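Propose amino acids for all 287 sites.
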């Protein structure tokens, strides 16, 4: 997962070290020079022009997704670090790097089971109802796709399920949902009406009102998400809310050890190997 040393100007790999760039908080950063075009540069390790160390930034992310508010994280930094960070700065770090990591890992190949469970959770954004829609693989517990949206209509559900299908290919044979009518239309468009009619793909509806129980695996995951987000006093806007929840998707899939599995879901769903104890940092620098 090391950054490839390539000249950003001419893309040549024929480069050499050329001293260090001194920074106030991050120490000395290695500089390079291209032997071909003589362009001097520093490698972008994901923290280019950041005034705080990668360890401090990823520490804040880990504390936040473990249930600590940004204000309490600020108090922690004030007690243990000489250069404090404002709680609004910490939130900007979370939004920036949650989005960055999710963009890097969303294209990785998945090896999952044959059933997806899809459900939604209600939140408040500026006092109005908003929804977190997500899909989970029942075999690996990997959260395959998610989105934070204004409403839970057919269009919004179809977008999440289409993303899940793009990631899983032909592996999914059963789509399990609750009785919301929008799911039926969305699944017909994503899985194909012919496949559903011929029984090649099944839509499994689980309705609590008909005493059919719950979709236990995704409901259990939602309980974990609620436990973390219950301390929020609502979200301020849709963009930051979506970034924060994408970060939770990363946390759930790659950072947090699943109690039932005894390992992270990504370890079952893909060939990726994370070796560093600081998985946030390793994912940020992943190429």
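Proposal:
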């Amino acid at each position: 997962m090391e950054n490839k040393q390539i000249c950003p100007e001419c893309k040549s790999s024929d480069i050499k070290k050329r001293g260090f760039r001194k920074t106030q908080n991050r120490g000395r950063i290695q500089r390079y020079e291209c032997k071909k075009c003589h362009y001097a540069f520093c490698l972008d390790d994901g923290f280019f022009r950041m005034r705080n160390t990668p360890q401090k930034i990823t520490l804040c992310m880990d504390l936040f997704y473990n249930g600590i508010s940004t204000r309490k994280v600020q108090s922690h930094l004030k007690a243990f670090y000489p250069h404090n960070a404002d709680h609004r700065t910490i939130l900007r770090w979370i939004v920036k790097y949650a989005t960055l990591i999710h963009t890097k890992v969303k294209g990785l190949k998945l090896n999952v089971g044959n059933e997806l469970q899809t459900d939604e959770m209600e939140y408040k954004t500026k006092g109005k109802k908003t929804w977190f829609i997500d899909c989970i693989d029942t075999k690996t517990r990997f959260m395959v796709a998610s989105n934070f949206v204004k409403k839970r209509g057919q269009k919004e559900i179809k977008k999440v399920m289409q993303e899940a299908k793009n990631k899983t290919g032909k592996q999914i044979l059963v789509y399990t949902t609750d009785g919301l009518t929008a799911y039926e239309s969305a699944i017909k468009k994503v899985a194909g009406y012919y496949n559903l009619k011929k029984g090649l793909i099944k839509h499994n509806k689980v309705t609590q009102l008909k005493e059919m129980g719950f979709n236990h695996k995704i409901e259990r995951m939602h309980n974990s998400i609620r436990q973390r987000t219950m301390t929020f006093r609502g979200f301020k806007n849709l963009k930051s809310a979506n970034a924060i929840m994408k970060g939770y998707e990363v946390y759930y899939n790659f950072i947090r050890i699943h109690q039932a599995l005894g390992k992270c879901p990504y370890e079952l769903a893909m060939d990726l190997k994370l070796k560093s104890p600081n998985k946030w940092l390793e994912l940020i620098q992943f190429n």
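Strands lie at 15-23, 27-34, 40-42, 115-125, 128-137, 143-149, 174-177, 202-205. The first strand starts at residue 15 and ends at 23.
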